[in-house]
Amino acid sequence: MEQKNKRLEGNGKKAPVQQKEQPLPDNAARQVHFSPLKKRSTRIKQLVDDIIAHQEYERQKEQKYSSNLESLNSGFKFVVMLQIGVLVAAAIFSVISLRKFFVRKHIY
């Protein structure tokens, strides 16, 4: 083998170095090493769940507000139409009653 290495050295090439395969230690990746990552991922998942829950709450709140607003608008339209009807009826009554008054007094 030494002759083979010498022959390779003579050509200017280095002899291939054989490395021993080192066995992985038993404690290469224990649960203790992953616990900070697990804590972080749990915390991030909790924050995401909180955000989703808050968004759902806001969506429900907005939907409730929207339905309340629609019912208020319909009620407001009804009241406005009623006021317009009362105003028109009062105007017609005034014209009729004034006309009768002036006819009786012979002014018209």
TrEMBL record:
GOLD domain: from which residue to which, for each copy?
Answer: 25-102
Membrane-crossing residue ranges in chain numbering: 78-98
Highest taxon of the lineage: Eukaryota
Positions of region (Disordered):
1-28
Q: Name one Pfam family in it.
A: EMP24_GP25L
* The UniProt record lists the keyword Transmembrane helix: yes
Key words of the record: Membrane, Transmembrane, Transmembrane helix
Q: Where is the composition biased (Basic and acidic residues)?
A: 1-12
Return the protein name.
Answer: GOLD domain-containing protein
